[in-house]
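Lab manual, section 2.4: Encoding a predicted structure.

Procedure: take the sequence of the chain (144 residues), apply the prediction step described in section 2.3, and record the output as structure tokens. A sample record is shown.
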Amino acid sequence: MVTWLEMPLRSSGAQPSLRAKYDVGNAVVMLSETTAYVALADPKAANELLQHPDVQRLTANNLKTIQPGGPLSWEALERQAEALNHGGVGRGPVGLGDLISSLTRKARIHECSGCARRRRGLNRIPVWGWWRSQKLTPQPDGSP
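Recorded output:
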């Protein structure tokens, strides 16, 4: 689940800079002239940012009134934020949903919100790297 936040830009003198006012960590950031729109897949980080008085949570209705400043849709930006929260490629098992999603992207089929839900559900089925999620316990003789 991705949380969208709205926060002001960092100000340096008379003009705002092109950076969010607060450190957002692993997030997707869309900038406008005075505002940063931040997509976070980490609920703990989102709650920490919401402690600042000038940061507010955006709802789906808020996002409909704001035009993303580029060729990507809000859904595509959310997928990028979710991917950032997974810790990178090759660090965990690859789920069936991600495999199907990558094949459909290569076929230039766009993912809708229903497809994204289905992808998350199918990711419970690991197809590659399943051994990475297993904890290694040391053996009595010292070998792993």
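Check your result against the sample. The longest strand covers residues 3-12.
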